[in-house]
Amino acid sequence: MSNEAPDLASLRSELTGPSENISEDIKTILTSIRQISPTIVEIKQGNADILRRLASIEMHLSDLDGQLAAAEMKIESLTSDVVDLRNRLDDQENKAWRNNVRILGFPEGVEQGNPTRFLGETLPTLLKLPEGTELSMEWAHRSLATRPAPGQRPHPFIVKLLHFSMKELLLKSVRELGILDWEGHRILFFPDLSKALQDRRRLFLPVKKILREKKVKYGLFYPATLQITYRGETTAFGTAEK
Predict the structure, then answer these.
(1) Residues 163-190: tens digit of each pLDDT
(2) How are beta strands 217-221 and 180-182 bridged, if at all?
(3) Which of 15, 16, 192, 216 might form a disulfide with 100, Cβ 3.0–4.6 angstroms?
(4) CA 178 to CA 227: how far, in whole Å?
(5) Same domain assignment for residues 204 and 125
(6) What is the pLDDT of residues 93-124, one digit of tens each?
């Protein structure tokens, strides 16, 4: 009997000891949970606040996207209007210069202060115009710029003729005569066009060179239309790419 008592006591100790430890562990865990709970609540509240802010930011970004799209459409519309107005202004400018001719090559000062008289006397002979041809110039002057230094290219004459037909006659005579020489100076004639239109027409130069080499008949018409006649068929092109 004496030997059994300690064994029972030991067994009770083994059975009751862990339970007490588990209870203490559970109490510790519950205490920790109670301490953590307020923090979890704060985190949830913080997350909810962040979500509200994100939703507000998304709405704001959506509004900004709409405003940006509207602004881009407005810019495209304004750009189109500016291009249209620029083209109209350029067209009006060139129509106002429709009867003008630009003449390059005459040395500075040969007009002796009277370009209209000088050109009226010189051009008929230079261009071999029919005797008695009246140029009917409204005015003539050098281009407005600082007088060039000796050795530099002289300023061109700009001539406004009263009749478009006279301008066409002068340019036709130039084409037929080819190279024009006046007292050792090469004289060139061009329509008086705006820089924008000159740039558009200049794009046709490589094409015109090829057409001349192949002896294909062509003509460049106002404002910038290349008309080609090949094998009896005439085709017009508005751009050099075409």
Answers:
(1) 999 999 999 999 899 899 999 999 999 9
(2) unpaired
(3) 192
(4) 21
(5) no
(6) 888 888 999 999 999 999 999 999 999 999 99
Q: Which two tokens stand for residue 184?
A: 């050792």
> What is the DSSP track for 81-147?
HHHHHHHHHHHHHHHHTTTEEEEE-PPTTTTTT-HHHHHHHHHHHHTTPPTT----EEEEEE-SSPP
Tell me if residue 161 falls in helix, strand or coil.
Answer: strand
Q: Is the distance from CB of 104 to CB of 187 less than 8 angstroms?
A: yes
Note whether 180 and 170 are within 8 A (CB). no
Beta-carbon-side half-sphere exposure of residue 174 (alpha carbons within 13 Å): 17
Tell me, yes or no, whether 87 and 102 share the same domain. no
61 and 149 part of one domain:
no
Q: Per the structure block, which two tokens stand in for 161?
A: 């003729």
Residues 71 and 3 in one domain: yes
Domain that holds residue 220: 194-242
